[in-house]
């Protein structure tokens, strides 16, 4: 947590709050003097920078030592010690508390940024996730409607690793490596105009922007061949693959990404044209 200890923060805060109670047994004039020094120390520690507060602590402590030791002050050693130490200790504790609060705020901001990064980008396969695919689909829908006079279309291709969950239960490390291999194949075989996403659960999505049907067919055939050849040690993963062509008129059927994904997954199960790419058959 950025080297911040919650327990350490609590102890400093508690000690700063109970410090005043240590002086309840001294005389009233000493008590109020210590109380004012504590308030001053808290203000200095919370408001001033570390350098300024350090110099102020040194100067005031030196003046206090001079006044209490060189002059004639009718106070016992306990009262003098309390007067000398109350300001620097309180200023130090307040500055530490301020620093902890500052670092904690930075940590919380970084935590939110990390969470957003993890949500938008899968660290294992180094691909964008469903969130970014949804954003792109919204943009695609808008462009298809606004530019309906142009010959624009998009193709959505889903690749599913069959029995991925069962394999992951007993081969977690190997599961991670196979996902990386699949992502590597996709990055190598697809065009710049295409966007790659990892949806989770062994499912990958390719969004092809206005790629000619013949070109897309060749790309998918090449991808199938590479997936057939993919293996990890003696294990040959099996894949399903389905594609859906989208134009402006189809947006009524598929208003959002969830609709097109449901259709593609249903197509994987029911469409007889879908090929089962089993590396064992290669």
Sequence of strands across the biggest β-sheet: 4-5-3-6-7
Query: How many strand elements?
Result: 7
The CATH class designation of the largest domain is Alpha Beta
Q: Give the rounded overall mean pLDDT.
A: 79
What's this entry about, in short?
With 282 residues, the protein is of the alpha+beta class.
Topology (elements, then pairings):
Elements: H1 6-18, H2 28-47, H3 50-70, H4 77-120, E1 121-122, E2 127-128, H5 130-146, E3 154-161, H6 164-170, H7 172-189, E4 194-200, E5 203-209, H8 213-229, E6 238-246, H9 257-270, E7 276-278
Antiparallel strand pairs: 1-2, 3-5, 3-6, 4-5, 6-7
Keywords:
alpha+beta; Alpha-Beta Plaits; 2 domains; 13% strand; disordered C terminus; membrane; transmembrane helix
How would you sum up this structure, described in words?
The radius of gyration is 34 Å and the shape is elongated. A hairpin with a 4-residue loop joins β1 and β2. It is an alpha+beta fold. It has 2 domains: 2-118, no CATH class; 124-271, 2-Layer Sandwich (Alpha-Beta Plaits). Residues 1-7 and 278-282 have low confidence and may be disordered. The strands form 2 sheets. It has a 5-stranded antiparallel β-sheet, sandwiched between helices. 21% of the residues are buried. It has 9 helices and 7 strands; from the N terminus they run ααααββαβααββαβαβ.
């Amino acid at each position: 947590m950025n080297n911040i200890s919650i327990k350490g923060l609590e102890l400093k805060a508690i000690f700063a709050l109970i410090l005043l109670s240590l002086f309840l047994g001294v005389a009233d004039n000493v008590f109020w003097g210590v109380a004012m020094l504590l308030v001053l120390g808290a203000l200095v520690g919370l408001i001033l920078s570390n350098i300024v507060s350090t110099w102020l602590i040194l100067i005031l402590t030196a003046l206090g030592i001079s006044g209490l030791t060189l002059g004639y002050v009718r106070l016992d050693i306990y009262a003098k010690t309390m007067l000398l130490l109350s300001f620097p200790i309180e200023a130090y504790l307040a500055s530490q508390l301020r620093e902890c609060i500052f670092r904690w705020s930075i940590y919380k901001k970084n935590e939110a940024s990390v969470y957003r990064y993890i949500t938008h980008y899968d660290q294992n396969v180094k691909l964008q996730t469903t969130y970014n695919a949804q954003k792109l689909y919204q943009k695609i829908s808008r462009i298809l409607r606004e530019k309906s006079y142009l010959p624009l279309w998009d193709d959505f291709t889903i690749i599913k690793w069959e029995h991925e969950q069962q394999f992951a239960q007993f081969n977690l490390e190997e599961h991670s490596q196979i996902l990386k291999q699949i992502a590597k194949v996709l990055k190598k075989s697809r065009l710049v105009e295409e966007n790659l996403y990892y949806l989770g659960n062994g499912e990958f999505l390719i969004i092809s922007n206005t790629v000619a049907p013949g070109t897309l067919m060749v790309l998918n055939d090449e991808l199938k061949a590479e997936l057939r050849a993919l293996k990890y040690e003696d294990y040959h993963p099996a894949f399903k693959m389905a594609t859906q062509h989208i134009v402006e008129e189809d947006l009524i059927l598929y208003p959002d990404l969830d609709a097109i994904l449901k259709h593609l997954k249903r197509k994987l199960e029911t469409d007889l044209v879908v090929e089962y790419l089993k590396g064992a058959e290669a």
